[in-house]
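Example noted here:
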Amino acid sequence: MAYFIFFWAQDRQYTAAPLAQASGFGYWLVFFGSVILLFLAFSFKQADVVAVETSRAPDSGGWLRQLRERLADSPRLAAAIAFVFRFQSFFGLIIVFALAVIFSPIRNDANIFLSTRNLSNVSRDVAETGILAVGQILVIIIAGIDLSVGSVVALTATGAAFLLMRDQVAAVPAILLILGLGLFIGWWNGWTAERFKIPSFVTTLAMLSIARGIAHIWSSDIAVPISYGAGGADPLFEIIGERINGVFPVPAIIMFVVAAIMALILHYTAFGRHLYAIGGNQTAARLSGVAVTRIKIFAFMLCGFFASMAGILHAAQLNQGSPNEGVGYELNAIAAVVIGGASLAGGKGTIIGAVAGAFILGILDNMLSLNNVNSNVQLVTKGLLVVAAVALQRLKPRAAE
């Protein structure tokens, strides 16, 4: 790494040929990631020992105990570490962005990653994950989870293609119908979980299969192309997947608008406060007068709504709806939320952090793709990143709480 950083800092004329070999860069990345995981696993053991043996006199062993003692004696250091943990998603985004710049191949004396076209592609690709993460974090804040969003993307993308092409429905009514379908799916997920006291993991896992199956039945197992012009779809729908001035992707603009609106709602309305209250302590929230059941169902409805919105964007960008799309999207959304600092136990997380987590994943995927790293290695890397994010939450010092 020092070799590449040195030459990049000197004249940025190096080529990324060594990085382009998946058997080299990719597998070394996995190796070092595994070492980090072992280190974190050891840290968990140290944390457990400290938690259980609080009555024993402190000894000289255990780096984590010594660190906590130093933090107790140094308020400034504790405050600095707390600041880093508080904005961990932004620091993570800066680090990943810097790595992408450093390890980017050079073409015609220009950094490929920093090219306008590539940055536009990154923001376009992140849009769907970002919107899914906005919906997913609402459910995770209340200590739930929605595993069906990937299948909902496939179902709604296929449905949009059918409405536009076969039924010749205008763009606006078609979009409203698809968004309504997403709301209904979200309502069903939340209602079944609350009515029958079934964990949301189970109800949404069932919907994952149901939505995917309906998409296959609806499309007869084939992709439904979307074309424009005479006898084609409403041209208004095409705008959703385009770029303004050939640079700014409309899906990314939609994602930022959605994230901004939901961030304001989450932090400045009673609905947002009730979400955090339910995630922190559902019993206490109920006793304080919060309509727990109604709020939780509405959170799932919003998650389904945003999943259908992602499906619409997906269909508009690819000009087709396919029942095979959206596989693994639920994992990307959950990963973005976790990397953004949310807790799967509920009661913690921000919209901005979730979107930052989506960009971390998007930039990481783009960096590895530019260096021709095998897609399977990319999946391993993404998994290691999620585990590392969860581990950081476990090791977070009390000063950061």
